[in-house]
Amino acid sequence: MNCYPYGPDDQRTLHNVNSRTNDPGIDLNPYLNFLLDINTDFPVVPNSSCPLPPSSSFVSNVSRQYSQATIESINSLPPYPNGPTCSIPQSKSYNSSQYGQPTKLGCQIENGTLERLDRLETKLAKIVETVAQSCASRKTGRSQSQTQSKETSDEEASQVCSPLQPKKRPTKNEFSSYADEEPKLPKEKPRLSASKSSQLRQDIERLRKKKPPKLIPPANFENEDVSSECDYEVTKPDSKEDAEQSLRKEITSLNQQLQNEKERQKNLEGELERASRELQAINSELNTIKSERKEKDERLGKLQSDLVEACREKKETEQCVHTYKKLSSRLTCKLEKAQLREQQLKANLSVKEAALEQLSCLQKENECLQSEIRRLNTPTVTKQRSSIQPTETDQAAVRKAVDCALKKATSKFTKFHNEEVCKLEKNLTEAQKTIEELQCQLQQTLERKESLANRLKVSCNQMEANLTTFRSQENLKERRVQELSAELNQSKSRVEEVSKQKDEEIQKLQKTVQDLQKECGRMEQMKETIASLHSENVDLQGLKQTVTELQSRLRCLEQERDLMRSQLEQTKSENCCLKRQVDQLESGPNANRDQRQIDNNTREELEKIKKELTAQMEAVRAKDKSIEDLQDTIQKLKRAMECTSKSSSPDYEHLKRRNRELEEVLERLEDRKEELKCQLASTETQLLESNKAHQIINAKWKEKSAYISRMQTNLATQQARFEVREEELRQERDEALEKVQSLERKLEEVSVRSRETKQTEMQKLRCKYEEQLAKKEAASKCSEQAYRKMEQRVQELTSELASQKKQLCGKFNRLGKFLQEFDAD
C-alpha cells in the first residue's frame, strides 16, 4: 500500500521531503509524533486537493505549545551568573566533545543548563502522563460526540498566536468534538503582540494562494467502489469567499438535517413517554388492586384466626367434658368398690355375730355344767376339800384363758373395723373433693361457653358488618383479578414485546443519528485539519530560528570550555612541580618506581575521565566535584611541602590516604558513567519508536480519504431508512392505543360480573355462619343437659352415702353396746 500522502501526478518524485530522514512526508518532531500515535487509533488524513481557510490544527497547536512551554519555562528560570542570557531551550542530544575543559564558572553555567533540562524533562513526563490518562478516558467515551459552530478565520489566527496549553490528540469517535472547540488559554500567560499576529496572518494568506499537491489514493482498496470514488480530483474554487460560502452552505444544510432529525427524535420520545405513562397508570391501578387484595386477605386471615381460636376453645371444652365423664366413671367405679366393701363388712359382721352366739351358747353350757358340778359336789364338800381346791383353780384358769381370747378377738375386730371406717371416711372425703372440683370445673366451662358464645355472637355480628362493607369490594376485585389475570398477562407480554421493539428501534435510530453527527463533525474537522497543515510550515520555520539561536548559545559554551581547558593545564603544571618535589624527598629506587606506576595509573584514569566528559554532557557535575577535590588536595599538598623539612614520613602516609580517596572518587565516576550510558540507550530507543510512529501516521493518512467518501453515501441511505422506520413506528403506536382501549372496556365488564358473583358468595357465607351458630347452640344445650344429669347422679350418690353412713353408725353403736355388755358379763 502507498503510505505517502503527497505526490505529483506522475507518482515518481514526491514533494515535501522530510529534512531529517530524507523520506517523503511531513517533517515534525519525532517525540511529538510518538505521543500522537499513542493517543490516536485513526490519525487524520490530509485532503490536500481541497484548499480551505487555515485553522488551529492539533499538530500545529501541540508543536507550538511545546516550543512556547519550553521557552517560557527557561525564561522563568534565573539567568546565568556571568554569562550570556538566552531564553531558548537547550536541545537534549547535542555532543559535548566539541568543547574543551570546563572552568569553575563554565561548570556552574553547565550545571544551570542541566538543571533546566531536568526540569523540562519532568514537565514532559507530566505531559505524557496526562496524555496517557486522556487516552484511557477517551476509549471509554468514544460514543459521545459534540458538534459546534465553526469560527471565523480571524479568530483562528488569533488562536494560533495565543500561547496554548498542551492539547491531547483526539480519537476517531471524539474527532468531531475537538474540531469546533477553541483552545483553552492559561490565565497567567499573556497574548502575543499585534505585529506578530499580523505577520502570521500574512503567512496564512500566502499559504492559501499556493497550489496544494495532489492526493495520491492508496494502491490497494478492499472496496472497488471506494477506489473509483477516490480517483477524482477536487477542483479548486475560484476564490476564498466562494470556498467559505460553499462550506457555510454545507454546514447549514447539515445543521438543518440534524435539527430535523432531533425534532423527529423528540416527537418519537414524546409518543413513547405518553405510552409509558399509560402503562404506568395501568400498573399503578393493578398495584392498588393488589394492595387492597392484600389488605382484605389480611383481614380474612385475622377472621380465620379468630375462628380457629373459637374451634380450639370448643375442643378444649369438649376435652373438659370428656375428662368430666372419665372422672364420673371413676367415681362410679369407686362407689361400686365401696359398696362391695360394705357387703364384705356385713358378711364379716354376720360371721362375728354367729361366733358370738356360739360363745354365748358355750358360756351357757359352762354355766350349766358348773351348776351341776356344784350340785353334785355339795354333799362331799367337807370330805373332799383337798380335791375341791384344784377344781377352783382350774375354773379360774379357764376363765382367764377365755377372757384373754375374747379380749384379743375384740381388739382385732375393733382395729379392723376402725381401719375400714377410716378408709371409708377418706374415700368419702376424696369423693366430696372430686365432686366439688368437678362442680367448679363445670361452672368454669359453662362460663367459658357463655363467654365464647357471646364472643362468637359479637364476632359474627362484626363479620356480617365487615362483610357487608368491605367484603363486597374484596370479592369483586378478587374475581376481577382472577378473571383478568390471564388477559392482563397476555396484554403485558404483548406490550412488553412492542415496547422492546420500539426501544430497540429507537436505540438504532439514535445510534444512526449519533453516527451521522460524528461523521459530519469528522468531515468538518478533516477539512480544518487539512487547512491547518499548511499553517504548520510556518511553525516549522519558527522552530528553525530557535535552532539557530541554540547554535549561537552552544558557541558561547565552547568558549567557556576553552577557558576551562587552560585552567586545567595550569593545574597540571602545578601538579608536575609538586610531584618532582615529592620524588626528590622520597628515598630509594623502589619507592620512585611505585610512585611512577601510581602516577601513570592516575594519568591513564584521568585521560579516560576526560574522554568520558567529552562524550557525555551529563557527567560534568560529577567531574566538577572531582576537580574541586583535586584543588583541595593540591592545597593540602602545598601545605605538606612546607612541612616536609619537619617530617617526611607522615606526609607520605597522608599522600597514600589521599590516593585511596581519589580511587574511590574514580569508582563513583565510573558508576555514574554506566548510568548515563543506560539513559542514552533508553533515549535512543524512544527516538526509534517515535520514528516508527511517524511512519505509521503517514500510512494512516490514506484511510481517511476513503472514509469520507463512504460517509457521504451513507448519509442519504440512512435518512431514507429513518423516514420509513418513523412511519412504521407511528402505525404500531396507533395499534397499541386501540388495544389498550379494548382492554379497558373488558376490565369494566369483568368488574360488573365480579360484583354480582361476590354478592351471591356473601349470601352463601351468611347461611353458613347461621348454620354454624345453630349447631353451636344445640351443642351447648346438650352439654347443659349432660351437666344436669351429672348433678342428679351426684346428689343420688351423696344421699346413698349418707344412708350408708347412718346404717354403719347404728351397727357400730350396737357392736359397742354388745361389747360393753360382754365385758360386763
Report on this structure.
The chain contains 12 helices and 2 strands; from the N terminus they run βααααααβαααααα. Among the domains are: 25-235 and 530-561, no CATH class; 564-736, no CATH class. The protein has a two-stranded antiparallel ribbon. The longest helix has 201 residues, at 385-585. It has 825 residues and is mainly alpha-helical. 81% of the residues lie in helices and 0% in strands. The protein has helices at residues 30-38, 58-76, 104-140, 153-161, 175-180, 194-209, 224-230, 240-377, 385-585, 589-615, 620-642, 649-824; strands spanning 6-7, 214-215.
Question: Notable features of this structure?
Answer:
mainly alpha, 825 residues, disordered N terminus, elongated, 81% helix
Short recap of the structure:
This protein has helices at residues 30-38, 58-76, 104-140, 153-161, 175-180, 194-209, 224-230, 240-377, 385-585, 589-615, 620-642, 649-824; strands spanning 6-7, 214-215.
**Total beta strand runs:** 2
Structural class: mainly alpha
Mean pLDDT score, rounded? 63
Question: What's the SSE pattern?
Answer: EHHHHHHEHHHHHH
Q: How many whole angstroms does the radius of gyration measure?
A: 65 Å
Uncertain regions: pLDDT < 50 for 5+ in a row? 1-32, 34-59, 77-110, 145-192, 211-238, 380-391
Helical proportion, percent range: over 70%
The separation of the N and C termini measures 161 Å
Characterize the overall form: elongated
* Number of helical regions: 12
Main β-sheet description: 2 strands, antiparallel
If strands are numbered along the chain, what order do they take across the biggest sheet? Answer: 1-2
Portion of residues in beta strands equals: under 5%
